[in-house]
Amino acid sequence: MNPTGSFKDRGMTVGVRVAQKVGVDRLACASTGNTSAALSAYGARGGMETLVLLPAGKVAAGKIAQASLHGARILEVDGNFDQCLDIVQDLADRGEAYLLNSLNPFRLEGQKTIGLEILERHKREEGSYPDRIVLPVGNAGNTAALYKCFRELVESGALEEDEVPKLTGVQAEGAAPMVEAIEDGTDGTRRWEDVETIATAIRIGNPVNAPKALPGIRATGGTAVAVSDEEITDAQRTLAGEGVGVEPASAASVAGLRKLRERGVVDAEEEVVCLTTGHLLKDPDAAAAAGSEPEPVPNDTDAVLEHIEEPSSVAGTVRRGASKAADSPLIPALVAGGLGIGYLLRKLRSKK
Ligand SMILES: Cc1ncc(COP(=O)(O)O)c(C=O)c1O
User: Fold this and answer.
1) How far out from the chain centre does Cα 149 lie?
2) What are phi and psi of 3, to 5 degrees?
3) Topology of domain 8-101, CATH
4) pTM attached to this predicted model
5) Which of 134, 136, 301, 351 has its CA 20 to 30 A from that of 249?
């Protein structure tokens, strides 16, 4: 389970525990929101001072509420996430705080559990390992952690080389340095100074884990793809119509898979797992904007009945989005998955 509602809990429990063991008293992270929520919770639990540096005006309401109530000092920086991380790295270099971004290797150790769970559960439920894992990419920590997990399994003899799922990253078009690097075949990423997307969790222009994640994408035969904000919102509605509520960055994985299937990069036979990384309530404003409007009705049963007889202009928004996607030849069938373990299993059945 992910107690603060995002996959960041996996690594943060380990990172904060290590900090506690070595006697650190001040923790710090830069964050697009979810890292700060997780650090604030575990920092509070460990009784340590916690600083979170956030890009002012660019963090979703649910995440700030979490950091606030857990008692972190919320430092709003007039800059983007990458600039917040520059400051946190300076603080760490000066010995003023213990850095808990995904540059911290203990964070990635914790996040490897996602890879283990995907393999374990897919094997149990589908009888095989997935061919591909599609995940949203910001700082590329999760991509790096999954690659490390699979490499270690191969080295230990628990997994065959050809059983490693193809790691496939999805970024928003307005913040896609990893996609650029994969398309251009470069060893590193170019720092994007101006980044923008509705998926604020992955509004990152300088993915610091790119040196670990790019080799992972390439070595596993994966790829990376950029999606528009409209495609992200459309995928968010589709998932919501299936009863799975996620924040925009999470929905990017499904949007990316759709695009790769449209382009013929992923064929209908492939067993694909899309990772969903953060709960819908993390970003209530995005959810409300993508969903239906409340309908005012009189305080009277007959009037309510009369009202619901009329076709609604808004109530079907989410359902319409879902059925449109379900009818789509690209996603003929979606089968159940679970957010509880931080990912959503989506098996794409071949088109009949
Ligand atoms: C909801 C969500 N999805 C995806 C990501 C990207 O993860 P990573 O930075 O490990 O690439 C983040 C990072 O903040 C996130 O909060």
Assistant:
1) 18
2) -60, -30
3) Rossmann fold (3.40.50)
4) 0.90
5) 351
